[in-house]
Amino acid sequence: MKLCMIGTGYVGLVSGVCFSDVGNTVYCVDKDKKKIDLLNNGIVPIFEPGLEEILKKNHKQKRLIFTTDLKKAVLNSDIIFICVGTPTKKNSNTADLKYVFSVAKDLNKIIKKYKIIVNKSTVPLSTGDQIEKILFNLKKKKLVDIVSNPEFLREGEAIRDFIYPDRVIIGTDSKKANKILKSLYLPIIKKISRYFNTSRRGAELIKYASNAFLATKISFINEIANLCEKAGVDVKDVAAGMGSDQRIGDRFLRAGPAYGGSCFPKDTRALIDTGSKFKTDLSIVKSVVNSNENRKTLLVKRVDKILGANFKNKIITFLGVTFKPNTDDMREASSIPMIKYLNKKSCKIKYYDPSGEKDDFKSFKNVKYCSTISAACLKTDLVILHTEWNDFKQLNFKKLIKKKKFKIYDMRNLYSPLKMKKLDIDYFGVGR
Ligand code: UDX
């Protein structure tokens, strides 16, 4: 099939590359000429393990085309995917849909024969209806079907998530569009995944409900971790015990810092906003957002406690600063408020992250990037294990730090408290 992905951000690029890999011809369109030039030279502007290899292979075979020419790409394609950003509007919870609507207006001028328009951008309930209004005349002439097909890709795992999805959700009441999309997804859903056709609004809500539920699971275990800390219980045991009940499941029950990234914080806020538009009080989601905000302060206070509020001339090392491993993404990473707070005290902060130095900290006087784990750890007073990159899972702290007294704050519970005790290391975890 011939596909057009509008927007070569995370979702558009990963989906476009993976669709081309299963034999489709895919036009990836972006307004940003620099980005298109990079992609045409085989340079991937995002950090996603495995993406570059598949991209280069399909680009070479001419199944993957990068262009700024929207008109040509649309006219040559059967299915058009909208994959543009939906950031939160400043000082509100509302998702900003200006990019989605601007694409719809462009399509309204270009389309002359039947196309399926699939929205993959994360958009609030009823956005599909608004797109349909913009394309009213084309819809009346049966020249378009507007479908919702949310993505569930995790950064760092996006290729695997695309090729082996748990489910593919198609929101449309058009039998024709559903049949064509089912055959597009057939190579992917053939083995284990579920293909699920529902209403367009249903599909839009499934995306937000899924992300909000996962955020709820994380916040829930994080609050249980707070209780564990006070009661002398290990939250890892509680999560394992709870998680072996199949109705609960053991995933997304890892206690740690406040959740971050480009999706959970933004989508939970947007869902609350949708709730109020539809006059529904989503009190649980509201509590989750609050709980996650409070967590940022709570964990900083814990550092205060660990250091005995004695910051002067102390050296603090962050291992990992991204919101999760296998990404270079700093959006809503809990390391940002932590480092901001500690920077104000008179301590020195060193950090190492496998994805490199971060612009977020370049203007901070007391924050220094180190290019190796050993440089970051040398002579430090406190190591904060912030992100669970594999690189940090088997460290010999005594050898690295070369100092008699130091402390470890393991925010991802990567190490065994018992082993640390045996090594006579001052160790603090989360919820244990
Ligand atoms: C998420 C969803 O998983 C994906 O389906 C969606 O479409 C996009 O948003 P992503 O943002 O890449 O993906 O990250 P994810 O792996 O879900 O982690 C989000 C945050 O939750 C991270 O800060 C992570 O550290 C945290 N997390 C996750 C926990 O603290 N504990 C867990 O058990 C799992």
Which key phrases capture this entry?
3 domains; 44% helix; six-stranded parallel β-sheet; single chain; 14% strand; 432 residues; N-(1-d-carboxylethyl)-l-norvaline Dehydrogenase, domain 2; alpha/beta; binds uridine-5'-diphosphate-xylopyranose; Rossmann fold
Derived from helix and strand composition plus strand pairing, the structural class reads alpha/beta
- Tell me what portion of residues adopts beta-strand conformation: 5-15%
Q: Helix proportion of residues, in percent?
A: 40-55%
The N- and C-terminal alpha carbons lie at a distance of: 53 Å
Count the DSSP helices.
Answer: 17
Strands ordered across the widest β-sheet: 3-2-1-4-5-6
Determine Rg (CA atoms, Å): 24 Å
Instruction: Supply the number of structural domains.
Output: 3
Full CATH superfamily name of the largest domain: NAD(P)-binding Rossmann-like Domain
> Got a strand count?
14
Task: Tell me the layout of helices and strands.
Blueprint: E1 2-6, H1 10-21, E2 25-29, H2 33-40, H3 51-60, E3 64-67, H4 70-75, E4 79-82, H5 98-110, E5 115-119, H6 127-134, H7 136-140, E6 144-148, H8 158-163, E7 167-171, H9 175-189, E8 194-198, H10 200-231, H11 235-243, H12 264-277, H13 283-307, E9 315-319, H14 335-344, E10 348-352, E11 367-369, H15 373-377, E12 382-385, H16 397-401, E13 407-410, H17 417-422, E14 426-428
Parallel strand pairs: 1-2, 1-4, 2-3, 4-5, 5-6, 7-8, 9-10, 9-12, 10-11, 12-13, 13-14
Helix pairs in contact: 1-3, 10-12, 10-13, 12-13, 13-14
The structure holds uridine-5'-diphosphate-xylopyranose.
The site of uridine-5'-diphosphate-xylopyranose (UDX) has 19 residues, from helix 10.
